[in-house]
Amino acid sequence: MWLFSNSQKGAISKDLVPFMKNHLTEETRKAILDIKEAMLHLPIQYASIFIYQAVLEFGIRHVDEFLQWTKHHSTTVPFHWQPTIANI
Fold it and tell me: What is the helix (H) or strand (E) element at residue 17, kind and residue range?
């Protein structure tokens, strides 16, 4: 998991709990862990929040898909992702 300060613009950890509860399944957990593991062996780093976002909101399941996803989505911090109400 990750932590954000209360002064963080955008979502803070507690705001993501309902979304996470509704979207974490065995499949999505495995995808998140598989991507994190694969990223350990690559010479690039991303904050894990982006892996959660890619998997839970965009349906990414493999590291190659994640790396492609990063080419078209912001992966900078500070982080401003707030899942839409429809996704919560």
Answer: helix 13-23
